[in-house]
Amino acid sequence: MEDEAFVYHARRPEMSKRKEAAQHCISKLRQTSVEMNGKYDEYVSLMSNARELSRNKDIGALSKLSHHQVEEFMSEWNQSYVKTFRVNYKFSILDSLRNRRLCHGGRIEFWDEDRQTLEYIEHGSANHCLNFR
To answer: What domain of life is recorded for the organism (predicted)?
Structure first.
């Protein structure tokens, strides 16, 4: 029993450090979640506003909203903390592009199965399809 108590007391500082690290990680994740939810809410609000303006055919206000968003984005892009903003933007955009099967430049990205399909069409199968007309 005394040995178990000694082992517990010896491991206690290590367990406390792990607990603090886990709590810090959870806190950071919660903070990130709140920030992301805020950005999503802002996006939904912006899109509903743009949808309403287009529904009302208010081209002037829609153009003004668009220019405001571009100016806001460019001001963040050109700030002193550019690297953080650009890295965050790049990773968020890359996920979106990847989900839509587009490459970094926004062009269609051919994956292996797409390449095999194109090769199949180019080499002979297209001729067979044409003969069935």
So the answer is: Eukaryota
Task: Give tens-digit pLDDT for 71-121.
Answer: 988 887 787 666 777 777 777 777 777 777 777 666 766 655 556 666 666
Buried b (16+ CB within 10 A) or exposed e, 29-59: eeeeeeeeeeeeeeeeeeeeeeeebeeeeee
Q: State how far the Cα of 8 lies from the Cα of 49, in Å rounded to an integer.
A: 59
Final residue in a domain of this structure, among 32, 55, 78: 78
Alpha-carbon distance 25 to 72, whole Å?
31
Containing domain of residue 30, as a range?
Answer: 1-78
The distance in angstroms from the start CA to the end CA of the chain is 88
What is d(CA 40, CA 45) in angstroms, rounded to the nearest whole number? 9
- Do 33 and 65 share a structural domain? yes
